[in-house]
Amino acid sequence: MHYIAVCILSLLTCCLTFPLPQEAGNVNEQQWEKAQEYLKKFYSYKPEERINNLQNKIKQMQKFFGLTPTGILNANTMEIIQKPRCGVPDVEEFSLIPGKPKWPSKVVTYRIVSYTQDLPKSTVDYLVDEALTMWSKASSLVFKKVRKGHADIMIGFARGAHGDFNPFDGPGGILAHAFAPGKDLGGDAHFDNDEQWSDGSKIGINFLFAATHELGHSLGLGHSSDPEAVMYPTYTHKNRKDFGLSKDDIKGIQNLYKKR
Question: CB-based contacts of 224: which residues, under 8 Å, 6+ apart?
């Protein structure tokens, strides 16, 4: 009898479903879970702070992406949530030091410490150089590559947990992240090695686009809400010939480091 009672109780527990909050709109439970994780990572959503917290965070996200701030999850909001993107928060402080940090010297060193199996090392080297050249041309910065020891910006590929308390999540989702200028991890840029990286000539995440974005963070830039900006947080594949810094990107880097 005891065994039968336990089985019945387990069955009833499995069958119980709890209604989703009003803010969930018409999304299913799986989408609702993904939305909550998204808001936690990128908009500091804290479920324990119940009073208007959820609705305000959804509105904050919707405003950032130029959507109507309803505070309700809808198709347009979920479409953005499900896109691959950068792992840096959109509106909250993400740097290791307060304020708006930047490199004190106009000469910034960088080193590539690990590579992806998807591209030849020489291609990764070339694309990193091309990304930094874009930021250099738009500002007073000069970049110097070093081959050993510590550099201002340490660049590498990694999987899962990799020592910075921001583990990668496998294919899709978060593609990469970087830290604002500072000591230790400051300035470092990490790329998820579980992604399929490309130079633009084949299917995969275009490494030049991702590297230019993450290195913008390494220089002190936050995310832009302009869909045409390199610093827009979600990944959008563009033709190589059409790729370059937007007016918003240039304004941002020149606010930090002035014109060349």
Answer: 230, 231, 232, 246, 248, 249, 252
CATH number for 75? 1.10.101.10
Residues 54 and 164 in one domain: no
Say yes or no: 53 and 122 in one domain.
no
Q: Does a structural domain hold residue 114? A: yes
pLDDT tens for each residue of 125-178: 999 999 999 999 999 999 999 999 999 999 999 999 999 989 999 999 999 999
Angle among Cα 166, 180, 108 to the nearest 5 degrees reads 125
CA proximity to 107, closest of 164, 145, 162, 158: 145
131-161: burial string, b at 16+ Cβ within 10 Å, e else: bbebbbebbebebeeeeeeebbbbbbbbeee
Q: Which two tokens stand for residue 101?
A: 């940090």
CATH number for the domain that contains residue 163: 3.40.390.10
Of 82, 98, 116, which marks where a domain is finished? Answer: 82
Whether 183 contacts 102, CB under 8 Å: no
What is the tally of structural domains in the chain?
Answer: 2
**CB-based contact 216:99 (threshold 8 Å):** no
**Per-residue DSSP letter, 24:** G
3-state SS, residue 234: strand
Write down the pTM of the prediction: 0.89
47-59 per-position pLDDT tens digit = 887 666 899 999 9
Q: Which residues are tagged catalytic? A: 214
Side-chain-side CA neighbours of residue 206 (13 Å): 18
Domain containing 67: what range?
22-82
